[in-house]
Amino acid sequence: MAFSQGSRSALSIGVEDTFGTAASVYTNLPIKTHSLDLSKERLQGMDIQADRMPRVSRHGNRSAAGSIEVDLRKGNYDDLLEAAMLSSFDSNDEMTIGTAPKFFTIEDRLEDITQYRLFTGMTVSTATFSIAPNQMVNTTFEMVGKDMSISGTPKTMGASTINTPFDSYNGAIYDGGVGSANLLGIVTSLEFSITNSFAPTFVVGDDTTPQLEFGRSIIEGTMSCYFEDLTLVNKFLNETESELQVSVDDPSGSNAYTFYLPRIKYNGASVPLANEQSRIVELPFEALYDDTEETQLLLTRSS
After folding, report:
1. How far apart are CA 220 and CA 190, in angstroms?
2. Which pLDDT does position 179 carry in this prediction?
3. Rounded to the nearest 10 degrees, how much is the dihedral formed by the CA atoms of 81, 162, 148, 142?
4. Does the pLDDT of residue 226 top 80, yes or no?
5. Helix-, strand-, coil-residue percentages of the chain, each rounded to 5
6. In this structure, are residues 95 and 84 in contact, taking their beta carbons and an 8 Å threshold?
7. What is the pTM of this model?
């Protein structure tokens, strides 16, 4: 008996023309891990019997969800980034927060046992980016979707180029504007997320959702820095708004993606004494709409 191995697994992804209808074109999606799965609600009969034992149990509404964890890199995840921002890159390779959802069919390929799980109506509910020394730029896409089916026949996966992942050594972080005076050389880690709150909208007569609803764009994060002076702490104490720019790249130095948050507010400045080593200040922040840029977040990719 052969057991399915993780090393013989893969994901392919295609953009849907119609929500919940399987895509026609698929490409390989490089991943580290994923937890995509189908869940069903349970319906239980509540009849009271003298022997105390239940008689009825049924399956209810179906929905798909799970996370996809990747090392961020140029090109390979642009569709997912567009879904996370409900927008699209323009002719200048720039993208702002938008209002247009994008849906995918994702195939979980178990090649060694020739079984293929097909998830439809999937989109990015939350995207989280983590930057720290001695690691790649870790990115997690929390997915929500409509349904899943299983087949012994795979979708045809087109050829794709897997690019070099971004790391924490090729890029920069600026607070308060771009320039040498604003370059932060004291950051020990930075994590931020885009949350859209996608959720199914179930109706009578169907066990899967006809569409997904979504909420406001919530962009929040935490920056950890060595505590060397009060510059960042005072921005929290005085409720001074700032701006944050984060660039990441691969070793070539020519494939940068830049996340620009034109208007942020620091909502804390904790400086715990954890041990005898360097003191670290934790700075949670949120991104707000900026009148000049007309967005919370501007994402620019290299041409």
Report:
1. 11
2. 78
3. -40
4. yes
5. 10, 50, 45
6. no
7. 0.95
Q: Are 167 and 134 in contact (CB under 8 A)?
A: no
Cross-strand partners of 28: 12
β-strands 157-158, 26-29 pairing? parallel
pLDDT value of residue 1? 64
As given in the structure block, the two tokens for residue 123 are 């989109």
| Spatial separation of the C-alpha atoms in residues 198 and 68, rounded to whole Å | 16
Query: Which candidate, 53, 81, 189, places its Cα nearest to that of 131?
Result: 189
Q: Using CA atoms, how far apart are residues 53 and 51, in angstroms rounded to an integer?
A: 6
Hey, what amino acid is at 287? Answer: A
Is-contact 19 200, C-beta < 8 A?
A: no
Q: Are 280 and 226 in contact (CB under 8 A)?
A: yes
> What's the mean pLDDT in 85-113?
96
What are 96's strand-pairing partners?
A: 298
Which residues, 6 or more positions from 283, have their beta carbon under 8 angstroms from its beta carbon?
222, 223, 224, 225, 232, 236, 266, 268, 269
Contact of 63 with 261, CB cutoff 8 Å: no
In terms of C-beta density within 10 A (0-12 exposed, 13-18 middle, 19 or more buried), how is residue 83 classed? buried
Q: What is the pLDDT of residues 267-281, one digit of tens each?
A: 999 999 989 999 999
Cα separation, 240 vs 243, in Å, equals: 10
pLDDT at residue 229 is higher than 70: yes
Closest CA to 267 of 241, 290, 245, 293: 241
- Count CB neighbours of 181 within 10 A: 8
Query: What are the extents of the domains in the chain?
Result: 6-39+60-301
At 108 the pLDDT is 96
pLDDT of residue 2: 77
